[in-house]
Amino acid sequence: MQSDVSALLRALRERVTASLKTRLLLLTLAVFVAVSLPAYVAFEWIVRTTVVKLGTLFAEKQVLFDRYRGLEALMREVSLAETLTRSPAVIEWATDEAAPDKAARGLAELERYRQSFQDHSYFFVVHASGNYYFNDRDGSYAGDQRRYTVKPENPRDGWYYTTIADGPGCRLNVDHDDNLAVTKVWINCVIAEGGRVLGAIGTGVDLTAFIREVVDIPQVGVQSMFVDRAGAIQAHRDARMVDFHSLTKDTKAKKTIYALVDRDTDRATLAAMMARLGEGRNAVESSFIRIGGKDYLVGVGYLDRVGWFNVTLMDVDAIIDRAMFAPIAALLALIAAAAVALMMVFFRRVVLDRLARLEGAIRRMEVGDFAAEVDRGRDEIGRLSRAFARMAAAVGDHTGLLEEMVAERTDQLRRLAQVDPLTGIYNRRGVLVALEPMRAAAERDGVALDLLLIDFDLFKTINDAHGHHGGDRVLSEAACRLRAALRPGDVYGRWGGDEFIVVARPRPETTIRALAETLLAAIGGTPVTLDGGVAVRVSISIGACRLTEGDTIDAALGRADAALYEAKRSGRDTAVVHDPLRHGNGNILLSA
Fold first, then answer.
1. Which of 17, 75, 233, 404 is surrounded by the fewest CB atoms within 10 Å?
2. Last residue of some domain: 409, 427, 458?
3. 316: domain range?
4. Rounded CA separation 143/138 (Å)
5. Which tens digits make up the pLDDT trace of 469-512?
6. DSSP letter at 232?
7. Are 454 and 502 spatial neighbours (Cβ–Cβ below 8 Å)?
């Protein structure tokens, strides 16, 4: 057994000695394991502790801010509604609804307060009769404020009976009034005198405006909502999350904040926080709670005057600037730098110095000193050094052959890019490339170039009658005839489809018109013989213009194309030359 272990150790030692890669891998793993584990533990502990402390402080400040913001939006309305419950005119009317003079004073008081409410609306329920009075911001129901009568047996009127059952004071309820067809945050205040309930009075705050002003304020990593004592969501930036008709709903049917929480333990934690706040033990409480698969720092405050809790969800990672952990990062960077330095010392001795010797040997080999010393090690660098000496001679032999092959391939690629494979003449790219030196020479000589666009007449009929093979034969023959009719140095090519382009230097002995006539005769003068001996007569139309200094190719093509269109319109088998210096419309009609 001991001999087997010894043999295994020797084999392992031999493998490590012969493999630079293995040695580097083992050393790298050892260094980083030794450095990274304590650094990681320290970093995690510091970051977690700091995030919890900073997040808790932020949560408390944020909840107090949200609480103030919520109170500011609602308390003024609640205070006005509470004041209205103590109005003598309203109380007298509630005790004697049928008296016309008391009803008039009561309605006048309600109308006066309506102008002070933010929503410019009010409602008033007389308990004795159940009559529901309402007027909106536009005064739409002036003179007809009694809208309907609440009844205990009507489930939609349950909010009223739930409100008065809770006794004096004001409560909030997010509700959609089916009779009035409005959705609001309703402020319901009970009117009582001598322990006797006289009715309920209040106003509403538009739910959309409330959410926009109080809940939906954009803050990175912060989301606010308001819930009642049962946890039912009363205000949320997503209206689908709001629990309407909370006062009259069964507990199981409510949309509560507890439904958003992932774990039962977190639900219990949140419920305990709200219970302590409702009892007045603390002003603000916060805790980390998992919602939707992510841990949020949840801060809770209690709005005691309206019976709501303001709940703020904070994504600590999005709120807390990670730059505050720069000292820790610097410490880790120093540790990593030390590890890298150690690795570099080792790497230099084991790899770089040996590679430098190999590089020197290679340079000596380049000047023919093939007897230079090479590394005799058994690892990769030693084997590479010896292999390179054998390869150097072969590389020299193959270099010339490779250069010839590259040049040949480059020429093939150029032809593929610039030559039309069907006709063997330039394609559009080839024409544009060849045109550049031609224009430069023309500008030096102070001459303008002749540009002609050539298009076959009714080319589709050839394809229809003789097939695309016949059409290809016509295009190839047209290219040959162009080549024969033009001079060396002229640039010509297939511009696309059955359209060709010619750019020629002006000829002393002829004009652009004469050149166009020559091309008309050269291409269309003789029928094209197809495979099988069928002769096909072809004709072309030509649009020509001068390409002067300062002209863009697009502008010249536009003039030539307009002339070509004129040639087509004039009956085809025709050339039209655009010449603005001699003719008003710039076109000269030349017939074939």
1. 404
2. 409
3. 18-320
4. 13
5. 999 999 999 999 999 999 988 999 999 899 999 999 988 777 89
6. B
7. yes
